[in-house]
Amino acid sequence: MQTNEIKVALVTGANTGVGFQIAKALAENGYHVFVGSRDLEKGKDAANQIGGEAHAIQLDITDNNSIRNAVSKIENEFGYLTLLVNNAAISNAGIPGRTMWEILSAQKASVTSIAEMRQVWETNVFGTLAITQALLPLLRNAKQSRIVTVSSSLGSLTLNADPGNAFRNGFDAVYGASKTALNGVFLSLAN
Ligand SMILES: NC(=O)c1ccc[n+]([C@@H]2O[C@H](COP(=O)([O-])OP(=O)(O)OC[C@H]3O[C@@H](n4cnc5c(N)ncnc54)[C@H](OP(=O)(O)O)[C@@H]3O)[C@@H](O)[C@H]2O)c1
Prior knowledge:
5 strands; Rossmann fold; binds NADP nicotinamide-adenine-dinucleotide phosphate; 5-stranded parallel β-sheet; alpha/beta
């Protein structure tokens, strides 16, 4: 980016997994990184591990108060956001005691619990759009800005409609289709 502005990023769900690695890579590349975490203490641990300009921020993308507070914090500290990485997601409702096979079987469109489907879509689709909409004014305030949204090959209609794809039975209504919906929503935003 050809601007002298400090590069400011927010990564959602950055206390662990892919989000943690993205936040680390951004901090190593000179970004001030807000490490989004539902649990602030886990976010602080992650930010300490990352070092540099990584700082924890409490953020649950399904909680409007949490979204409001996180946006206010970034607004008060910088007044703009250069990069939003929409990484946070869940793959199931977290019902304990199920094997991966049981989870996948339970998430097929023919049998899935609509409550579980709603819970996953609440985070992966509606929560992701909610945090994005709330941050649009700060993204627009940056000299240059970008939104990166983490999807999955499991969300691809092209791949999962292909009879030659041996893994297409893994395309389920709960997680896979939530990523398809996410792709659609963010194509709409991009357009
Ligand atoms: N891992 C893979 O093989 C794979 C493949 C394709 C795509 N992806 C995508 O990559 C992204 C990261 O996956 P991952 O494997 O790193 O997942 P992960 O280890 O389960 O981490 C998910 C992160 O999202 C957070 N999160 C969940 N619900 C949230 C909410 N309501 N508000 C804010 N944060 C929330 C979690 O917080 P808590 O720690 O509080 O639960 C955690 O920090 C996801 O979008 C996933 O769909 C992953």
